[in-house]
Amino acid sequence: MKKIIITKKNKLEEEINSGAMIRLAGVSEGLSNAKNIHMAIASIPKDRCSTTHYHTNCESAIYVLSGEGLFLHGENLEIEESISEGDFIFVPDGAMHQPVNTGDLELKLIVARNTPIEIVEEVPDLGRKDC
Asked: How far apart are CA 106 and CA 121, in angstroms?
């Protein structure tokens, strides 16, 4: 029989941070023996952002749980789109992006990926540096 795993909020797995973005996994290879999926909550403090980055081996689906911000993307991050509670974002593999918190509260994102272990490439020369 296949085993269902429930990860309690006090048992989340801290991941490598990206800039000011902190990620806590609830479904991962280590926590749940997941083979084809990963799910985490990412938090970005007010006036802060992640580093510019892309994922080489996975697609990402992001849900804005709370807060407001900008989602920078495009070949040179030339596209800035507003994001807020209730928005969904699809990020294909290889697409550069940088979430930025522009609101008064913490920006919280639920992030799901189609692989348990992501490969992240940071692009420090692009994107916002003031956050």
From this structure: 25
Q: Does domain 14-122 have CATH number 2.60.120.10?
A: yes
* Class of residue 14 by CB neighbours under 10 A (exposed 0-12, middle 13-18, buried 19+): exposed
Question: In whole angstroms, what is the distance from residue 37 CA to residue 62 CA?
Answer: 13
What is the overall mean pLDDT for the chain?
Answer: 95
Task: Tell me the per-residue pLDDT of 24-75, one tens digit each, with 9 for 90 and over.
Answer: 999 999 999 999 999 999 999 999 999 999 999 999 999 999 999 999 999 9
E strands within the chain? 13-14, 22-27, 38-44, 53-55, 60-66, 68-73, 79-84, 88-91, 97-101, 107-113, 120-122
Tell me how far apart the alpha carbons of residues 32 and 24 are, in angstroms, rounded to a whole number.
Answer: 14
